[in-house]
Amino acid sequence: MKRLKRYQYERYAILCRDAYPKTFDHLKYGFSPQGRKDISNRWGQTIIRVLWREDGDVVVVFKGSQSIWDWLLNLVVVPSRVDAPRHVGHVHWGFQFLLRQPSRVKRRFLNRDFEKLSLSQQADLQQSMQGGDFQGHSVMEALESSVFPLLQEGKRLSMTGHSSGGSMAVIAGEILEQKYPGAIKRIVTFGQPATGYWNFKRLYGLKHKTYRICCDVDIVTFLPGIPLLFWHVGELLWLHNNRIYHNMPSLVRIIRVLTSWLLRPIAYHFMDKYIRRKDYFDKH
């Protein structure tokens, strides 16, 4: 497995963070003026952003939970067979439902909000309002119809997502890779809960291209919280105490964090803590 570069990590992390606000200007991240497609959920809220440059690959950004209804889906832990051509096991029903739900566009859009959009965004919205490609399709079908022309051009997909968006990226990535071999370049998730059952972990075909980022003791990364039933996939990169740990078991992560908290008052006595604060004096 190739290592995830720092600039790649920072790029995906920023895109995941900035994907949540309603206002999103893809041009400031270096994407082409026409290099954007937004895919909405059943409520008309943007759930996926497909972004690309004419001379580069595609980045697909999946949002995490945006409403109480989305959070409730996390509780539906019954198995659901992945909608892929070849059998690849079972995943958390709620996460796959996020991809199966119908994709629709808001019918009401205030003029003052419309005027704030770029010309390309206005054109995309008008097309969708007129019954464009995404109207009436599922979220997964809308995603596939968006990336298919780009794959035909020889582009590859980098998938990223936060929280349940990370689980969506994993499931969608497996489906697209089966339909279009070689389509997925990498998958990078942040704070992702466990997505599938043991058979999905065993059969998942993108384990060597998947990076799962976890920060300290992010409780969501331990969910659904049913030991030996739900399993993570890919390589774990655990960010803790200014270091990156690879594939650290969950139990060891919990013990190390608790130990760190208990020893924190003593750790502040060490000289390296004082040396790291040297920059403070440049500010005064």
Describe the protein's topology.
Layout: H1 6-18, E1 36-40, E2 46-52, E3 58-62, H2 68-73, E4 79-81, E5 90-92, H3 93-100, H4 111-114, H5 119-129, H6 139-152, E6 157-162, H7 164-179, E7 184-190, H8 198-203, E8 210-215, E9 235-240, E10 243-246, H9 250-267, H10 271-276
Parallel strand pairs: 3-6, 6-7, 7-8, 8-9
Antiparallel strand pairs: 1-2, 2-3, 4-5, 9-10
Organism: Enterovibrio coralii
Protein name: Lipase
Pfam family, one: Lipase_3
Keywords:
10 helices, eight-stranded mixed sheet, 18% strand, Rossmann fold, alpha/beta, 284 residues, two-stranded antiparallel ribbon
- Identify the strand order in the major beta sheet: 1-2-3-6-7-8-9-10
Low-pLDDT segments = 106-112, 128-135
The CATH homologous superfamily is named Alpha/Beta hydrolase fold, catalytic domain
The main β sheet shows up as:
8 strands, mixed
Q: Strand content of the residues, in percent? A: 15-25%
Number of domains: 1
Series of H and E elements: HEEEHEEHHHHEHEHEEEHH
Q: What is the 3D shape?
A: globular
Spatial separation of the terminal alpha carbons: 45 Å
Structural class: alpha/beta
State the helical fraction.
25-40%
Number of strands: 10
**What gyration radius follows from the Cα positions, in whole Å?**
20 Å
Total helices: the number is 10
Mean pLDDT: 84
CATH topology: Rossmann fold
The CATH architecture assignment turns out to be: 3-Layer(aba) Sandwich
CATH class: Alpha Beta
